[in-house]
Design a protein that fits this description.
Blueprint lengths: L4 E7 L13 E2 L2 E2 H11 L5 E6 L2 H8 L5 E3 L7 H9 L6 E4 L9 H12 L8 E8 L2 H5 L5 E4 L5 E5 L15 E11 H9 L4 H6 L4 H5 L4 E5 L10 H18 L1
Parallel strand pairs: 1-4, 1-6, 4-5, 7-11
Antiparallel strand pairs: 2-3, 6-10, 7-10, 8-9, 8-10
Helix pairs in contact: 3-6
Length: 251
Amino acid sequence: MNLKIIAVIPARYAASRFPAKLMGMLGGKTVIRSTYENARETGLFHDVFVVTDSEIIYNEISRNGGKAIMSIQEHETGSDRIAEAVKDLDCDIVINIQGDEPFVKRDPLEKLIQVFRQDDKNEVDVATLIREINDPKIIEDPNYVKVVKDKNNYALYFSRSVIPYPREKTLLANYYEHVGVYAFRKQALLSFYELPMLQNETAEKIECIRYLEYGMRIKVIETTFVGVEIDTPEDLELANKIIKEQENKIF
């Protein structure tokens, strides 16, 4: 199936836990520039854009040969920010890559794209990544979003709570963490932008619940890839350590 696929990286300058983290230095480049260039180097996309509310980030991408779009409005979610940006862009599928996850890998992104290439009946509105988790601390931590899926790998629900709840302690359940990388049909993304939040999304503060509450279908793809999300100065330090280790292996 011939689809025009673009990647969009939402990038806010402000961050409560680590202000200006996207402008932190990672192996001689800023975090946002590293994310942008790694996404482009996968070779999967017709185009890659950073969409931002910050002139600092806009200028960082533009002066280094990249493509950036300034947000017009304030937005509550990354999906809203992306929807505004792609409204007038020529594309079929939009991949949302988080700006604070610079270690972008080709394989999991390619698997998301394949969902739509194989979806001849246009049954999938959104595809997203999940990974199996076994650590009880992560399973019980509300900062980690869990997902339950049906036998055909469609999402049933996302929650910060423990789902499924292990009522029978002797029976083992499978637990999956939602990895915040999405692929959208453009029309599904534009619909998301126009639809108001409903009760469950408002309560959980998980944007993909909006799709489920309005009857759209989310295909989940399991991955083992775990990058480094830059949420704290310690995360940035770890990411720089990984960069140095990779450089040492080359030389």
